[in-house]
Amino acid sequence: MANGSFNVLIVDDNEMNRDTLARRLRQQGFSSKMAVDGREALTVIRDEKFDLVLLDIMMPEVDGYEVLQTIKSDEGLRNIPVIMISAMEEIESVMKCMEMGAEDYLTKPFDPVLLQAAIARCLKKAPAAESLPPVPAPPPIMPLPPQTSGQRTVLQTTTTLTQRTPAPTTNLPNVDVMPLDEVIGRIVNSSKVSRKGYRHLSNSLFHTLFNNRRLSEHEFSQLNLLFNLIQVGQIKIVD
């Protein structure tokens, strides 16, 4: 069965985002349909069969949370994989959505390699999954700048950061991922988070959730502290 037999629903209130995703899907041989908001998505998904949903989080009236909750609460829809779409400042929302049952997430702007990998992961258990292209490995991650000798981070003054060996992965590409506590420690130490730092954080967070399915209290504490420091301006978000 060709990829065109897979039908993907794109839900985003931004026309440019919808068009970008639809173009990427066409390039990969998938068919797609678009919904301009959550209300339309809930109507369309009951009228037509979909194999995957690409769902924006922030939308007016009916947002991505409500759409995801409705899909996962409906016996006839709950098995449809959902990939959340999030902007950089919505990491907490992504965590919440994964706890609610989302299979994966993408960040804006869209990376075509990560998009292809996310779709392949979600559809590989489908009857026609053998026709999907191999899951590509995400682009290599460049290391963050090392900590300056003698400096203490905010995290180090409140708790001891211990490095943990990531759980072995059997379903993900063989990619080196930094431990979550190390990524957070380096971000706090530098007092800023760049696109590269965000890629480290999102990859580490995803691999942790994908393998362990839930974060430990220690990891939640670290993330909460990081988000609080971003909110009060002690950590700047830079390009």
The general outline is: globular
What amount of the residues lies in strands?
5-15%
Total number of β-strand segments? 7
Q: Portion of residues in helices?
A: 40-55%
Q: Mean pLDDT, nearest integer?
A: 75
- Poorly predicted parts: 126-131, 135-175
Helix and strand composition category: alpha/beta
State Rg. 19 Å
Termini separation comes to: 42 Å
Summarize the main sheet. Answer: 5 strands, parallel
**Major β-sheet strand ordering:** 2-1-3-4-5
Q: Could you give the order of the helices and strands? A: EHEHEHEHEHHHEHHE
How many helices? The count is: 9
What does this structure look like?
- The protein has 239 residues and is α/β, with parallel strands linked by helices.
- It has helices spanning 15-27, 38-47, 64-73, 91-100, 112-123, 154-158, 180-190, 195-212, 217-231; strands spanning 7-11, 31-35, 52-56, 82-86, 104-107, 192-193, 236-237.
- Strands 2-1-3-4-5 form a five-stranded parallel beta sheet, with helices on both faces. Strands 6-7 form a two-stranded parallel ribbon.
- Helix 1 (15-27) links the parallel strand 1 and strand 2 (31-35).
